[in-house]
Amino acid sequence: MKKAIIYINQFFGQIGGEEKADHAPEIRAGQVGPATEMAKSLDAEITHTVICGDNFMGSNTEEAIAAILGMLEGKEMDIFLAGPAFQAGRYGVACGTICKAVKEKFNIPVVTSMNIENPGVEMFKKEMYIMQGGNIAARMRKDVKAMMALSNKLLSGEEVGCAEDEGYFARGIRRQVWREDGIPASERMIDMLKKKLNAQPFQTELPIPKLDRVPIAPAIKDLKTARIALVTTGGIVPVENPDRIQSASATRWGRYEVSALERLKTGEYKTIHAGFDPAAADADPNVITPVDALKVLLQEGVYGSLHPYFYSTVGTGTTQAEAQRMANEMVPYLKEDQVDGVIMVST
Amino acid sequence: MRLEIGNFYVRDIVLGSDLVYENGTLTINKEEALKFICEDDRITEADIYIAKPGDKIRMCPVKEAIEPRVRPDGRSVFPGYEGELAQAGDGVTYALKNCSVLVVGRHWGGFQDGIIDMSGEGQKYTLFGELNNIVLVADTNEEFEKREQQKKNDALRRAGHRLAEYIAATVKDLQPEDAEVYELEPMIRRTEDVEKLPSVVYVMQPQSQMEEMGYNTLVYGWDMNHMVPTVMHPNEILDGAVISGSFMPVSSKWSTYDYQNCPNIKALYQEHGKTINFLGIVMSNLNVALEQKERAALFVAQLAKTLGADGAVVAEEGYGNPDADFIGCYVALEDAGVKTVGVTNECTGRDGQSQPLVTLDEKCDAIVSCGNVSELIKLPPMDIVLGELEALGRDGLSGGWADDELLGPSVKPDGSIIMENNAMFCGDRVCGWSTKTMKEF
Amino acid sequence: MVKEIEKAGFPIVQMCNLIPVAKTVGSNRIVPTISIPYPLGDPGTPKEDQWKLRYHRTKVALESLATDIEEQTVFKV
Questions:
Q1: Is ipTM strictly over 0.90?
Q2: CB contact under 8 A, B321 and C18
Q3: pLDDT category of residue A321 using cuts at 50, 70 and 90
Q4: Which end of chain A has fewer CB atoms within 10 angstroms, the N or the C?
C-alpha cells in the first residue's frame, strides 16, 4: 500500500483560529481534519498529518521548512498533499511553499488546491499541480475529490491529462494532443471563422500569453573605457565545430578567442545554424559576428576594450529554458572579466 | 473556371507485368517505371516499393509526396514544372485516391526531409501512414549537396512528380468512380444571395526563404521568393499549379500532395454560397528580411481590402522566423478591418514552456493550432526501413540529432528512435487535416 | 538569453532583423539588421558597402549601450 502525508494549517488541524496562527509545526500520526475526507478516495494510506500555523510559516519560513523536512525524513512517503487552501492567502502560500520544498528534497509528487484568487496560484502554479479550488470551505468535499483524482493518477503512473481536463492550473506547458473527437483543423477553422464573422463567441486554440519584462540595465557611463563582449545565436563556430553545437534545438554553446584576430576568416569559421541559407555567413562570418568592425572601432577608441572571446550558440528550435541556462553559464565569464556591456547578434 | 476531379479509389497496389488499374487494384511494372525514372541520368540508383497501412515499414529520409494525377486533355499535371506552361484549375483531371508517390533518399537526408511509419505507434504522426504508397527510393549524382543539410533534392523530387503522372496515365481513358466539382463565378459577378454573405479570402504563406533558387515553393515553375502577394483561383492550387519546396523543417511542410488536396480550400468551397462568399486565394509567401515580411503583409491587407473581403484565413507553412510573417499578415488584415482566423503549428520546446510563436500580438485572437514541432517522440525499431535510418541523426533532419547528453543519439543501435515531431513528414498538416491541437498542462 | 544577461546587470543590445520578435521577447535595447542569413552585410552588394553598413550599425550598437532609455527602444540606423 502506498503512503501519503498531508499538510494543513492550524484551523483545519482543529487547533484554533486566527489566534493560533503562530502555532509551530508539528507532525501527528494518523489523519486529522481533511485527511479523513481524503482517505475515502485516495489510493494510499495517509500515515501522518503535519500541522503548522499560517503565520509561523509566513514569518519563519526557513525555520518551518527545515523543521518539517526534518520530521518527514525517514518516513515512507509516495506522495505529499497540502490544503485545500480555498481563498486563504497565507494558507495557500504556505501550501505552495512546503510542497515545493518537499518536492525538491524528496523528489515525490506533490499536490495542493486553492482558489484562483489565492496569491499562491501565481507564485507556485508552474512548479506543482495546484487544483482549481473553491473559494469557501464549504467546497471541501468537491476540492478534495478533485485532488484525490489527480493524486491517484500520479500514484499509479497513469498519464495526467491537460489542465482543462484534470482541473489544475496550467503550469505554463503547452503540448500537442490528439483530439478525441478527431475533428480536423479545416473544420475547426471554418467553425471559428463563421463565429468570428458573425460576432459570436469562439475559443482560440492559441491564447496569446502575457509577456514578461526585465528591468532596463543602466547605460554604460563612459563608453571610451568600457569592456564589450560579443554573443551570437547565429551559430558561428570554428569550422570543425569543436563543441559540437547542434544546428537546431541547441543545448550546447562555445566561446572562441578573438584577441589575436583582425576579423573572422572564411574557411576558419562558419555557421551551423539550420533553417537559413548559410552561404553568406560561410563566405564572410563577420556578417553575423562583426569582429572586424569591433576591432576597427576599438582602434578608433570608440570603446575601451574587447572581451577576448565571442560566445556562440544556435537559436532555432532552442527552448527558452535551455537558452536561459546557457546564458547563465556565460554570465560568470563576463563577470569575471568585468565586462561592461554586451552585443548580441541574432539571425 | 470549372475544375472537375474524377476519382479512382485505389484499394490495393501490387507489382506486376503491366501498368494497369482495375477494380481498385493498381498494378505497376517496376522495371518500366524505373526505366522511365532513370531517363534523368542524375539518378544513379533507384528502386520502387509498395508501402501500405499496417506494413511494418519505416521510411527515412522522405523528401516529397505527390498524388498520382493525369489530365485526359493531355495538359501536363504540373504545368511550368514538369511540362509546358498552361492554365491550371480548369477542365477535368483524374486522381488516384487513397494513394501517393513518396520520394525517399537511398542514403542522404537533410533539414527538410522526414520520417513516415506505416504501422505501430508512429503511424498516426503522418497522413501517409494511412495511404497506399508507391515509394521511390533513389540516389543521385548531385554531389554538391550530398553532405549539405539544406538540399534542393531536385532530381529526386522531379522523379517523384514524373512518376506520379506516369502511373496515373493508366486511368486516362477510364471512367472515374465519382467526381468533385469546383467552380466559382468571377468575383464581381456573383448572385445576390451569395453577395449577401460575408466574403472570405484564404491567404497562403508557402515557404520561399532561400535566396538561392532550387529550394523554394514553385508556382507554375516560378520561384516564389521572387514575388509579392497576388490573387489566385483556388482551383489552380488543387490542380497542380504549386509545387512544394525543399527547405522547411519537415513537420511544417506542405507537400505537393497537400496542395493537390488542400482540405482548408475544400472546406471553404463547401461553405461557399451557404455561409460565406469564398472570393479566392491571396497567395503570399515567407521572407527572410523584416522589410520583405512587412511588404508582403502590406500587399496581403491591401488585396483583401481591395477585393472587399470581410474575413480571411491565414495559413503559415513553417515555425520560427516565419511566425513573424504570419503575425504580420494577421495584424495587417485586422488593422484593415478584415476579421481573420489563423492556422499554424507551434514550437514550445521540449519542455513545453517556450513561447508558442516567436512573435505575438493580442490582435491574433483566433488561431487553430495544429501541433508542436518540439514534441519528443520515442518509437520502437521497425522491421523494414526504406532509405537509411541513420540519416535521421547524421544528416541534420529537423527533428533528429547525432548525440545529446540526456537523450543519446536519435537513432539507437537497435533501430529504435527518439526524435522531435519536427521530423515527421508533413506531420502538422496545417493544410487542414490535423486532428492534433495544443493544450495547456 | 538577452534577458538573462540583462538580469545579471549587463546592459545588452540585441542586433536583429525581426524587431517584433525582439520586442515580444522583451529585449530593451534593439538595433535593426538587414536580414536573417546576413544581418550585417548583403553579399549582393560591393564589399565596401557591406563594410560601411557593418561598421555603422556596430557603432550604433555600442553607443546604444551607453544611452539611457526609459522603455524598449529600437535605435535608428
A1: yes
A2: yes
A3: confident
A4: N
